[in-house]
Amino acid sequence: MWWILLVIIVLIILWAISAYNSLVRKKLKVENAWGQIDVQLQRRFDLIPNLVNCVKGYMAHEEEVLAKVTELRTAWANAGSINDKVDIDNQLSGALKTIMAVSENYPDLKANQNFSELQEELRNTENKISYSRQFYNDSVTMYNTALAVFPTSIIASMFAFKSQTLFAVTDDTARQNVKVDFDK
After folding, report:
1. Which of 48, 150, 152, 167 has its CA 20 to 30 A from that of 121?
2. Cα-only R_g, the chain
3. Mean pLDDT (the chain, rounded)
4. What is the pLDDT of residue 110?
């Protein structure tokens, strides 16, 4: 009888260790996924000033856009949470839409070799950001699900694992097409 009880206790301990390690792996995967987004967004922040410099001769309000990008870069570096970075990313997307809309109105700019190369680099970076966001959200969903399901939820609450936030567009204006008005 004692052997059966001992085997059951050992199995419970082994399960608890396995569940804990699984939660740790999932949490680290979420952190890695966020790191990938962070890297790609930083790359985008590095590309945009070069893109703005290419369109300066065509944009009457380029200083405002460049100032906004610079302000957002500083805010990005000082952002403390994922939600803050998501908000900054949404604002940066609006600035990018403005730059790209300007390029559509100027055939000379579209034909510029530097602008074309920067635009292609930015397009590739945007694709990587999109993939990284999807990977992050998938990782967060798997992690949060593991935290919520029984019996793993017992281990999660014992060791204070916290759920993570999905990367989502929170600003409805970021979902809209940008309108450029050159009459200002």
Report:
1. 167
2. 23
3. 82
4. 65
